[in-house]
Write the structure tokens for this entry.
Amino acid sequence: IKEVHANFQLASLLGWGKSPLIGALDIRGCEVIVADDDRKKGKPDQPDKKKKNSHWMSGVPELRVERARLEDCRFRYSLTNEVGKEGSIRVSKINATVGAFGTREDLGANRVAFELRAQLQQSGQALIKSELDLFAEKNEDTLSITVNDQELAELNDFFTPSEGIELKGHVEHIETSLILKQGRLEGRVLGK
């Protein structure tokens, strides 16, 4: 991470508020690398339904954030398949804005909206927009993904080693709209 700027409300830091409030969180130049190895996979852990605060954000400190922004960040996902072949996908030039949210259900807005613009591999220009509820068990979340000018062969770095698929051609424009409602995913894909 090159830079992180967080504007805290003084009263919340002194314990006068419900929890710390970050007015604006700006992160510049971050890089996230996720490596997954199918050779090491066993039975997935099951969440403990009896455990209090077993929500996926329970390990995150209690915070309220009015706005968050990412600038010029990068993400790489690599997958090593069962026979040891590694595939990777890279997303760079990530610029994103996230609306107000809290890390606990009672800390501010439950629905959060975000918009992310990025470059997929070397050529694709991606736009992702979403509105979701971080805490609802009976959710109704939306996600739209648009990719323009993607050379498909660039995605072979991921799909050929991991899935044995080789892509060719060019996607001028592809648009996906998804709705996840109470565990059911519905959507549409339009492209040319």
Notes: The radius of gyration is 19 Å. The first helix runs from residue 10 to 13.
